[in-house]
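dude i think i finally got it to work??
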Amino acid sequence: MSQPLPRRLLAEYVGSAFLAALVIGSGIAAQRLSPGDVGLELFENAAATGAGLFAIILMFGPVSGGHFNPVVSFLDASFGGMRWREATAYAPAQIAGCVTGAIVANAMFAQALVTISTKHRASSAHVFAEVVATLGLMLVIFSLTRTKRGATAPAAVGAYIGAAYFFTSSTSFANPAISVGRMFSNTFAGIAPASVPGYVGAQIVGGFAAIALLRALYPDVTAAEAAEVVLPHGEAIPDAASGVV
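look at this
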């Protein structure tokens, strides 16, 4: 039985807040622990993010699915795993959660509660990297669900994001909500507001590319399978095949 929508939105909000606090907080800690060694700082940030994401999905996934990412939610809706109005409701909760998490991270490290980042990231290479990063993340999540290996998704998502910190030039944001949230911390993990539209646009393109590739690779993906994303949390939409949501 699907959880009530308000409960799912609360899980997405709190989980997204933990995600942003994890990414930004570990970035601040890495910069303080390893000053001047950017490679080590990035490794520490990536390791903490990958491990923490694993735990956060396990915490909140049984309630809301553990999306914490509007692209995941909209792809889930496109495959019939949730209603479009629910996916639309998830997005603001995810964005608000990431903004809250940024403020929490700033507070934990005695920063000003809100500091707008000045770190510009939106070169053409970075934007292309976000297309690739988002495409890969969606393939990991939905291919595991389609092949009935969804129980491994928390570990796989954490591992992918940790690795993508290094194989993408953008350090793999792959998430519009976290892109917005990271504007509010002028620290190691921040992103300047002017860079965010390019990142979000690239992430949307990556999401559309993932839909096309997933339909080619798994043409018989069902609404029941989509309902298991990222972790099982409810039931599929009975009339999804007819397009009625």
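DSSP finds nine helices and no strands in the chain.
im so relieved honestly
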